[in-house]
Structures are given as C-alpha cells and as structure tokens.
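[Meeting: bench + compute handoff]

Bench side (C.D.) handed over the final construct sequence. Compute side (W.E.) agreed to return the predicted structure before the next meeting so the bench team could plan truncations. Sequence as handed over:
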Amino acid sequence: MSDPYNRVPGGTARAVLEYLARHLVDEPDAVEVETSGGSDGQPVRLSLQVSPGDVGRVIGRRGRTAQAMRAVTRAAAARDGEEVFVDIVD
C-alpha cells in the first residue's frame, strides 16, 4: 500500500505504545521503542525496552497488561491501515 503522505511506517502505533509505556513505568526516561520492517507491505515490528525494574510492571500479571498494550497498539495501527507486532525486550 503506497502512502500518499509519506508517513513513517508505524508512526501512530509507535507513539501510542510509547505513551502507554511511559505512563506505566517508574522510570519513563528509560522507555525506548525501536521500529523495524514496514516496507513493501511487511508488518511493522515495534520493540519496547524499559528499565529492568519496570519489566514486570509492563508485562503485568499473567501478561494481561502486555496483551492490553498490544491490542491498543494494533488498533492504532489498523486505523492507519497497517499491521503491527509488539515485542517486549528484556
């Protein structure tokens, strides 16, 4: 799918993921989101990295917080007509 506005692939989804993560953790300055893929119809892969003390907070009990963040991020990407995968990096 060609983008007539020359946007960054996964830009909205990346912003949403970063916003959610920064508001969940104790050290918001340690939050980093890296983007890869997104060209030639490939899905965008977002890698979320937080400080070691905040990993449990981002994953949540039984992974519920992580799944909710993934769902909201996918919804933001779908709005732009994109597909996204979210990885939480230790």
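W.E. noted at the follow-up: The chain has a mean pLDDT of 89. C.D. will use this when planning the next construct.
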